């Protein structure tokens, strides 16, 4: 199963739309995971219409309609791997251990908010992934997103892509 991980799209405030490379991935993957800060419901509508499967949560910049349509925390098991999707995880210092304590029954935590890519594994085995942002690099050198595969209880081929 192929996955696309995105967050902090901020459409249409930071970009009018997602980059073509991201839409190309949407067409190729089995599951799109979005870790919040959509900003406008129109992007959610577009992804619901184009993605085979969509898992997402709302972020701090998402208004009432997005909060009504999306959970603050999404939990899904894909091919035997337990995923949790949230927007915020707090400061980076101590994040891995703090998230491992908060999400003891999760294998992979996908998060956003910082626009800073993150790929780490806590001592407990929890994998933490932040795909950055495909539309707003902030102080990062590039806009980014992630792809991965999951099969037989294993997350593999996690790749950070530059836009």
From TrEMBL:
Its cofactor is a divalent metal cation. It holds the Pfam family Metallophos_2. Keywords: Metal-binding. Its EC number is 3.1.4.-. GO terms for molecular function: hydrolase activity; metal ion binding. Belongs to the metallophosphoesterase superfamily. YfcE family. This is Phosphoesterase.
């Amino acid at each position: 199963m192929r996955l696309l991980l995105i967050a902090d799209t901020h459409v249409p405030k930071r970009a009018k739309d997602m980059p073509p490379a991201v839409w190309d991935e949407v067409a190729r993957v089995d599951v799109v995971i979005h870790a919040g800060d959509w900003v406008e419901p129109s992007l959610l509508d577009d992804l619901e219409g184009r993605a085979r499967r969509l898992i997402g949560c709302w972020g701090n910049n998402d208004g009432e309609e997005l909060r009504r349509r999306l959970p603050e925390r999404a939990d899904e098991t894909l091919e035997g791997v337990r995923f949790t999707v949230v927007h915020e995880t707090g400061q980076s210092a101590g994040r891995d251990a703090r998230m491992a304590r908060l999400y003891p029954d999760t294998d992979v935590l996908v998060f956003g908010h910082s626009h800073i890519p993150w790929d780490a594994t806590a001592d407990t085995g929890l994998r933490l992934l932040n795909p950055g942002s495909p539309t707003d690099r902030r102080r990062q050198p590039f806009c980014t997103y992630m792809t991965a595969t999951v099969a037989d209880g294993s997350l593999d081929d996690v790749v950070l892509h530059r836009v």
